[in-house]
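dumping this here before i forget
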Amino acid sequence: MFFRWMFGLPGAALISALLFLGMAYMIRQEATTKPPVEPPDLTITFKPEPPAITKKPPTRTKLPDPPPIDIPKQEPSRNPGGSIPIDPPISPAGKTGPIIMPGPMQPVVKPPPSYPEACRSRGASGVVIVEFDVTAEGNVVNPRIISSADGCFERSVLQTIQKYKYPPPQEDGRAVARRGVREVFRFELEG
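structure:
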């Protein structure tokens, strides 16, 4: 084993050195035999644009006034026609009676948003609309900015809306979640 190392290591070093010298020679030969590269011709020719064609706007003629319509007066009839029976409306739950659509939800806990100092120093003002979901417990989840006058207000609005608390939405006497609730925040500097 010692003899292998004694003859193998110097032999490997000698072969590596010869390869490096051969590569250096080839690189040097290539650099001296290649003609220098000339830059490409960069002349730019411009074609003149055709002259613009101007059109005269069409002349507008005034239309004559419409003739007056003479509508004879009629007395209202006591029996305008046959009556059509109308069934009571059916709600989505399958019950008959008036359909009650849920109105806008009003929060029970509604802390005011803080006016960001970066916006105040720039004198920024505007409106931010945020949309979110309300859980069956009345908590706000999944807030997302729908429209924003300035991006510096968005963080303040998202932090504030997380603190809102709504009365649990009711449907058929039980609490349910509601999606797509929107709130509008107005930021205005006073004075």
